[in-house]
Amino acid sequence: MAGNVPAFLKKFVAVPVSVTDSSTGKTIKAVYYVTPDYLSIGTNDDWARINLTPLAAQRIADTLHCFLPTRKMADDIYKAAKLRPEPVPMYAFRDSTPTMWQHHLIIEGQRKGRRGLIAGIKKDVVISGKISRDNKPGRVAIYGWHRQDGKPIQPLYTGHVYWWVDYSQGIRLVYRKIKVKGRWMDYIDVLKDKILQRLLCDEEFCDFYRYNY
């Protein structure tokens, strides 16, 4: 909150999406804006991607007028990405800080200093209707880690309790105002609209908007 993040992370990137209105046959176009990388701390010369619980991520998102993406948005962000390195799974001490740091360094080795929207390097912590319908309370939804063929390693999953965090989970922030047909709408209003929600969500239920902390 004090601004201890690399400068490049502060410039959001546009992701265009569209949906066909089945009642009129017309195409509805929209644009939302995302951070070019996963949430990080540090300076331009000394920084690291950080792995957080959904509750901590939600608190940060709320403060910055942002929200966490859906499964569909994770797919669309990957399609729009300029950089798509192959995922690198790690298997030992998955929830340790050294492993998180090592994974960051591996990604940086793949990135080779190139700039632009990057995706496929982490599983996204996402919002999902599965959370409120899971038989077990206090779940976190994760999805993504796309391979270069566009297929994710991680299907939509709510098996972890909310406090579980490991090296593979990343926090992507999305500006909460969506430009739909040239006018700004709050993402919750978009998700509540039965037609417009398909711009952001491809699940049966699109009514989970945020994690409560």
Poorly predicted runs of 5 or more residues: none
Beta percentage is 25-35%
Please report the distance between the alpha carbons of the first and last residues.
17 Å
Fraction of residues in helix: 10-25%
Structural class based on helices, strands and sheet pairing: alpha+beta
Mean pLDDT: 96
| Helical segment count | 5
Number of separate structural domains: 1
Spatial shape? globular
Let me know the number of strands: 12
General description of the model:
Helices cover 22% and strands 27% of the residues. It is of the alpha+beta class and 213 residues long. The protein has one domain. The strands form four sheets. It has a four-stranded antiparallel beta sheet with strand order 1-2-11-12. Strand 1 and strand 2 form a beta hairpin. The longest helix has 15 residues, at 97-111. The relative contact order is 0.22.
Structural topology:
Layout lengths: L12 E8 L6 E8 L5 E3 L4 E3 L4 H10 L2 E2 L3 H10 L16 H15 L11 E4 L2 H5 L5 E8 L5 E10 L7 E2 L3 E2 L1 E4 L2 E4 H6 L21
Keywords:
alpha+beta; 4-stranded antiparallel sheet; 213 residues
Nutshell version of this structure?
This protein is of the alpha+beta class and 213 residues long. It has helices at 54-63, 71-80, 97-111, 129-133, 187-192, and strands spanning 13-20, 27-34, 40-42, 47-49, 66-67, 123-126, 139-146, 152-161, 169-170, 174-175, 177-180, 183-186.
